[in-house]
Amino acid sequence: MAEATTTRPRPPLPEGWKPTLLSLRLARKHPKISRAIIKWEMQRAPKATGPGDLSDLLAPGQSRPADFPSYYISNPVHHMNGLHWMHPSMGYRLERMAEDFPLGKREQIQWWVESQVLDRGVRPRRILEVGAGTGATAFVYAQVFPDAEVVGIDLSPSVLRWARKRAKELGIDNVSFYHMDSGDLSHYDDGSFDIVHESHLLHEMPSYQIDRTVREMVRVCKPGGFLGFFDWAIPENDRDWRQREGMVRNNVEPFMLDYSRADHPALLAELGCEEIVMVERHSQSASWRARKGNLG
Ligand SMILES: C[S@@+](CC[C@H](N)C(=O)[O-])C[C@H]1O[C@@H](n2cnc3c(N)ncnc32)[C@H](O)[C@@H]1O
C-alpha cells in the first residue's frame, strides 16, 4: 500500500493505550474482580433509553429498525457478559472508551480529516459513518464541513441515543444518527454519499460481516468518492501477532483475529477502488483511505 504524505503538522500521538493496559492487566490476573467492577460501573452509569420498538431511531422513510445479526447479541466482548452493546449505559461507557483510542481524540481526528480530506480538495455534500458509536468522528466531519449532511449509523440503541444527546449539547445540527446494520445499507441507493468512513468498527465483527460491510461502504459511495478507515493495525511480524493474541485473550475480542487476518486493501482493490493509501500505522492502530473508481 502506498503511504500518505502531508505537510499539516499533527498533534503528538498518545504513546499507547494506557488505561486499557491497566484494565487488561487486572482482567488477566483477576477476571472475576474485573467483571464485577465493570458490572458495578455500568449499573451506576447514566443511561440513554427510549421506546422498546426503536421507533425513535428510524431514518426518514425507514419502516423498521435493523435486525440484530446474531454475532452482535450473542458474543460477550470487552469483559461484559450478556448484551454488551445493548446495555442502556453503553453510550456513556463507549464515549469514554473511545477517547482512549489512538484515533479517538478530537484533535487527532481533526488532523486526519483536514490533512486527508480537506487539504486534498474533497468538498463533500453527504457523508456516512458506519458503526458511528457516540459520534466522535462524525462530529469532526460535521464541523469541518458545516454545509454537508452527515449521517452516522449504528446498531446499539443506547449508543445512538447518547450520540444524539451529545450532538445537541455540542450544537451540531448537520448530523443525524440512525439504527442500521453496516452490512445492509439497503436504505441507501448506490452512490448516495461523497464520503463513507468507518472508525474502529471492522475489528468488532466476524469475517463475513467485515466483507459485507466493506462491500456496502463501497456500494453507497459515489464513483470517485472517498473512503476512510481508522482501525487496528494489521500485525506484521511474530511479535505483533503475540501481542495481538494476548490482547484478544485478555480483552475478550472475539473477532479481532478475523479482522487481523483480512487483507483489507485487496478487498478494496477487488471492489474497484483506487489510490489505496496507508495514512499511518503505529503500535495499535492504523488508518487508510481509498477512492472509489469512477467506473465503480
Ligand atoms: C468500538 S465501537 C467504535 C465506535 C466509534 N466509531 C468510535 O470510533 O468511537 C464499535 C461500534 O460498532 C457498532 N457495530 C458493531 N457491529 C455493527 C453493525 N453490524 N452495524 C452497525 N454498527 C455496528 C457497535 O455498536 C459500536 O458502537
From TrEMBL:
Q: What is this protein called?
A: Class I SAM-dependent methyltransferase
- Organism annotation: Streptomyces albipurpureus
Keyword Transferase included in the entry's annotation:
yes
Q: Which SUPFAM superfamilies match?
A: S-adenosyl-L-methionine-dependent methyltransferases
Where does the secretion signal sit in this chain?
Answer: none
**Regions crossing the membrane:** none
Any GO molecular function: methyltransferase activity
Entry keywords, A to Z: Methyltransferase, Transferase
